[in-house]
Design brief:
Elements lengths: L6 E6 L7 E11 L4 E6 L2 E2 L5 E3 L4 E3 L3 E2 L2 E6 L7 E4 L4 E7 L13 H11 L3 H15 L15 E7 L4 E7 L2 E7 L2 E5 L11 E2 L3 H7 L11 H5 L8 H16 L6 H8 L12 E12 L7 E4 L11 E3 L37 H15 L1 H28 L10 H15 L1
Length: about 425
């Protein structure tokens, strides 16, 4: 399996429009996989409780933060998401010298969710993820089949003041702080000589493996990447195109800028084919702690033919039923061993309707154009409403309890009109 999935972006002042941080990610996954958007409130736990992740159980913490997640419906973790403290995390598949084949452990997507549930800052998320990595390891199939598709993970993590890039190889890792400007990652190691945190044995391990002579300046990407770059050529071109588009808007990067980048098909950032963009997210996080963050999720494939719908953390949010997939409990083929002996229907309500509309857009040019225009109009209206909240704060939190769900219903109404 060639690395051909996912791009994650973050922009911080002075590259952004206003005093805010813009986070964005496309989740590129198998084309038949359903991605759901779900919400989990904060929760307290008793000592000794366990949490069942995708493949293994681990010790639960005393308190988890409220999270909004965009996740493949068959697993516990998430491709991307945010928590109530405006922490955002997205992960990327990376491959290097170290084999990614191993026993079932934590998936990178599990680590995304665990970081969001347990950390209040980006730097704390680095600590949470690396401590879990050291204790439990990473491993297991990352696709809902018996292909044994495995990879290591990199993470782009942001909060109200800064971002961190965390890259892993097995249990070894390096992290870099990003305090200004913009950064994007694809499916290749990107940390070079600026390393702000690292596994204490990371350099000795590389030296013992013969990857580093112990004398030249240590460069994480050079040392831990493949000796040949042929395997990561596709991600390299997407990375360069993403970086170029960020630079073109440097100084005034906005949510709309990020959405445009995620929709770009010429660069393959918006991917089509056997691997395609199955979900997208853009977050706007003001530096001012008195102002809320706004998190836009599509919950549907192909952002070019999707609506970015807003979510804001307030108390008493209801479950996001229209974007939550059916649950099969302990009978789920992904949970029973041997795993993946069948593949149940995981399509949620919005996915089903979107699938029909996408077919109409493909088949009927004029009708498809009208639908797309109506989708964009709805999205623009929502973004205009969110600008007021981003500037002046939340005046009536109770009115935002169903913000995302009501936006989904408006999207469904647009589809039903056509």
């Amino acid at each position: 399996m060639q690395p051909s999935s996912c791009d994650t972006f973050v922009a911080l002042p002075p590259s952004t429009q206003g005093q805010c941080i813009i986070f964005g990610k496309n989740s590129d996954r198998p084309c038949d996989e359903v991605q759901e958007v779900v919400y989990f409130p904060e929760k307290d736990y008793d000592a000794g409780e366990m949490v069942e992740c995708t493949y293994i159980e681990i010790e639960q913490v005393a308190h988890t933060y409220a999270v909004a997640l965009s996740k493949p419906a068959w697993l516990w973790g998430a491709e991307m998401g945010a928590n109530e403290l405006q922490l955002c995390i997205g992960n990327e598949a990376v491959w290097g010298r170290e084999s990614a084949d191993g026993d079932e452990a934590l998936l990178g997507m599990d680590l995304v969710r665990l970081g969001l549930e347990r950390a209040d800052t980006a730097e704390k998320a680095v600590d949470v993820i690396t401590e879990l990595l050291e204790k439990y390891g990473q491993g297991g199939s990352c696709m809902e089949d018996e292909s044994g598709f495995t990879y290591h993970n990199s993470f782009l993590i942001s909060d109200r003041k800064e971002a961190w890039l965390l890259e892993t190889s097995g249990k070894y890792w390096a992290a870099e702080r990003v305090e200004a400007g913009h950064r994007n990652i694809s499916n290749e190691y990107d940390i070079t000589t600026k390393i702000d945190k690292e596994h204490p044995d990371m350099r000795d391990y590389a030296k013992n493996k013969g990857w580093w002579d112990g004398k030249t300046k240590f460069n994480f990407a050079t040392v831990y990447s493949f000796a040949t770059t042929g395997r990561i050529g596709a991600s390299g071109s997407r990375y360069c195109e993403g970086k170029r588009m960020l630079e073109e808007s440097n100084g005034h990067i906005s949510a709309e800028t990020m959405m445009d980048i995620l929709r770009d098909k010429d660069s393959d950032i918006n991917m089509e084919g056997m691997f395609m963009t199955t979900g997208s997210m853009v977050s706007v996080i003001p530096r001012d702690p008195a102002l809320p963050g706004v998190h836009y999720f599509t919950a549907t494939p192909d952002p070019e033919r999707s609506v970015f719908k807003p979510f804001i953390f307030v108390n008493n949010i209801n479950q996001l039923k229209e974007t939550t997939s059916p649950s099969y409990g302990p009978d789920d083929p992904a949970k029973k061993k041997p795993r993946f002996q069948s593949k149940p229907n995981r399509k949620h309500k919005l996915f089903i309707k979107h699938e029909l509309v996408a077919a109409i857009i493909d088949s009927y040019k004029d009708r498809g154009k009208k639908i797309t225009e109506s989708m964009r109009k709805l999205e623009k209206e929502k973004m205009t409403q969110m600008e007021e909240i981003l500037s002046h704060g939340v005046k009536e939190p109770d009115l935002l309890v169903n913000l995302f769900s009501s936006s989904v219903k408006e999207e469904l109404a647009v589809y039903s009109q056509k």
